[in-house]
Amino acid sequence: MTLKKNSLPRSGAGRPTPARARARREELLDTALDLFLEHGFELATIDMIASSVHMTKRTVYARYPDKAALFLAAVRRAIDREAVGPEVLADLDNGNLAETLAAVARLRIGQVMTPHGLKLQRIINTEGYRFPEIFVAHNQVSTGPVVTFVASVLDRARAAGQITDIDTDQAARAFMSMAVGGQVRAIVAGRPPTAAQLEERVRFTVHLLLHGLRPRRSEEQQPR
Asked: Are 128 and 134 spatial neighbours (Cβ–Cβ below 8 Å)?
């Protein structure tokens, strides 16, 4: 039987829906990231990536002009997925400085301990020298907002006299480096801390920071 001209096309024929096109794009970027991580930027090829998602090279090149553009798009998607919204950070702030700082550290370390987070961190470490812009993007989208949040919490504590008068932005960066950076390096190296170790290290770092920032009385105020 001949179909009428206004009949719907059979399943799979015609232009894909926007949702299907978006899903295929995300599948391409996720697969590309996996293969770039597995083989490295130099050895991963467009042929390899296209074949893995059942696309033609022509289709991939229609979306991304070269391998570098595909790589950067794949990494940027991974970075965007790791970004923490302001509402999530606000929920971590219960008004207690030590508990809020510990919650932020746990959040960031926990992100890296997920398969997605570990994959992103490893590819930044291995290919960042070739594409320094991924360091910049990761800082702007993922790390930067968290540092800004921590600095704002420290600003409030400084205004309340809970900590000494310091550069809160630098203090926030130092805290994230101490509390998160060391754990991330161990995780990426395949030596993730146990839950008990993680909790002990986070609490120690919070205590160390707050002890160092505790207001000191001047000599004139010291008891004789």
From this structure: yes
